[in-house]
Specification:
It is a single chain. The chain is of the alpha+beta class. 53% of the residues lie in helices and 11% in strands. A 6-stranded antiparallel sheet has the order 1-6-2-3-4-5. 18% of the residues are buried.
Length: 275
């Protein structure tokens, strides 16, 4: 058997008959192929030579894989169901098609032959004259589901959820609780991203400031060392100046004494150069 998606990929855009080569382009032919290839049972004759017979007669073995669900104002059919129209004034055969996704309470999205074309293609109808649907008893579209949808189906099957539980899930979806939460999460993630970008900018500036600080500290250390060296040189110069001052004062005293004692001036001058 193949999935709903695989069936569409295989036949959309083609005009098919059932049995092969017969009733080509008829609405019931493509639905019989769908039943055969996706559900693994031989599609029965309608018993009325019309599409409507699949509802009015519900011939065996359809009941093995489908259940009948009457059309109501509030019912929205799901992808993979089979929609059946009762006859009307200009059509005594009725019509049959495979429901596609995207249906609403006023739009019936379906894939069909012999509505506007003999080619199997997507159609959009209202629900006028739709008598009901053949709903698969087991999902043949599960392979097309997301992992979360498969988990949900598993929970329903394993835990025997009742109608009230299902309605709660439907109401949850209608109230847009999940999309609202997803938007909130998305907004928070965006805020986090902005904050992370700001942190990156701050860290970049901090790194640059730390680099500048390191250079300043190095320059300050060099300046301090220079000041220290100059201080040592200044202390040495002051010491030397003090020593020469003392020496000068001694010599001046000696000169004065030499003059008063009529000391040989030439000898005094020589003594200066001996220093």
């Amino acid at each position: 058997m193949i999935t709903y998606k695989e069936f569409l990929d295989k036949y959309l855009g083609k005009s098919k008959g059932y049995p092969d080569g017969k009733y080509v382009g008829e609405c019931l032919s493509i639905c019989k192929l769908y039943i055969l290839e996706c559900f693994g049972i031989d599609p029965p004759a309608s018993g009325t030579n019309s599409a409507y017979g699949y509802w009015s007669n519900f011939p065996s073995p359809l009941s093995e894989v489908f259940e009948k669900v009457g059309n109501t104002d509030t019912l929205i059919p799901e992808k993979g169901w089979i929609a059946i129209w009762k006859p009307w004034d200009t059509n005594s055969y009725g019509h049959i098609a495979i429901v596609d996704e995207g249906c609403t309470s006023t739009k019936l999205i379906n894939n069909a032959q012999n509505w506007t074309s003999k080619v199997f293609q997507k159609e959009t109808n209202n629900y006028n004259n739709v008598i009901g649907f053949l709903k698969p008893k087991s999902s043949i579209i599960q392979e097309d589901m997301t992992d979360n949808e498969k988990i949900l189906i598993g929970l329903i099957n394993e835990n025997g959820l009742v109608e009230g539980d299902i309605r709660w899930l439907v109401d949850l979806k209608k109230n847009q609780t999940v999309p609202n939460l997803e938007k909130k999460v998305s907004d928070l993630e965006s805020s986090v991203k902005v904050l992370e970008e700001q942190i990156t900018i701050i860290n970049t500036k901090l790194g640059s400031n730390e680099k500048d600080l390191t250079v300043c500290q190095k320059d300050l250390k060099t300046a301090n060392q220079t000041i220290s060296n100059i201080t040592v040189e200044l202390e040495t110069a002051n010491t030397e100046r003090s020593n020469y001052k003392k020496w000068y004062e001694v010599k001046c005293a000696e000169l004065k004494e030499c003059t008063s004692n009529k000391f040989n001036l030439l000898d005094f001058i020589k003594s200066l150069f001996k220093k």
